[in-house]
């Protein structure tokens, strides 16, 4: 959770990558908080609270992992990609964006990963949504991990993927430590807090028809 200027509420982020003692955040400028953050310069200080919540859980047996990133959804998946490749697992990454200009640079992806791109306007890779690629690639994977917008999850929940799927749920967080319960979502076993029991959930665990779409002005980024 990052303190952004004079805004009362901190903004939630995933740690995107770590290299040579430096942490990187990946975000779009969508509101006051991220616009403020984008203007920070080298040497500026940033007030952070964390790490918070729970991350991905990967059993020891799976050998082939399928990762699905919609829009800026690669932000929390990057560490998972690096770790699993280092463990010798096969990792396939499906990347989706509205257009080629919004795609994550291929040159920044870890070596050894297989990546497949889909853009809604057809300007790069295959034309369509990233979920359109799932029927082809899900059959060969042992486990699926995804991060993207709410419509992507709703589409995935209606697909018969036939294997475990973990997703990162994005909601507006108030306190970030579970006290205010403002980020609670309905699940098969009752209300759960995104900041404490999440942000990673099993796909089938969430009652997706009852999850409200966060407004862009409220949410910082993955």
What does this molecule look like?
- It contains four helices and eleven strands.
- It is an alpha/beta fold.
- The protein is globular, with a radius of gyration of 17 Å.
- Residues 216-221 have low confidence and may be disordered.
Q: Keywords, please?
A:
single chain; 222 residues; alpha/beta; Rossmann fold; two-stranded antiparallel sheet; 22% strand
Brief overview:
This protein has 222 residues and is an alpha/beta fold. It has helices at residues 32-38, 78-86, 134-137, 150-157; strands spanning 17-19, 22-24, 64-70, 90-97, 114-119, 126-127, 143-147, 165-168, 184-187, 190-193, 200-202.
The residue-averaged pLDDT reads: 91
Q: Uncertain spans, ≥5 residues at pLDDT below 50?
A: 216-221
Top-tier CATH class of the domain at 64-210: Alpha Beta
Kindly provide the radius of gyration, computed on alpha-carbon positions and rounded to a whole number of angstroms.
Answer: 17 Å
Helix content: 10-25%
Question: How much of the polypeptide forms β-strand, as a percent range?
Answer: 15-25%
Major β-sheet annotation: 7 strands, mixed
Instruction: Assign the structural class, choosing from mainly alpha, mainly beta, alpha/beta, alpha+beta, or little secondary structure.
Output: alpha/beta
Global shape? globular
Could you outline the blueprint of secondary structure elements for this entry?
Elements: E1 17-19, E2 22-24, H1 32-38, E3 64-70, H2 78-86, E4 90-97, E5 114-119, E6 126-127, H3 134-137, E7 143-147, H4 150-157, E8 165-168, E9 184-187, E10 190-193, E11 200-202
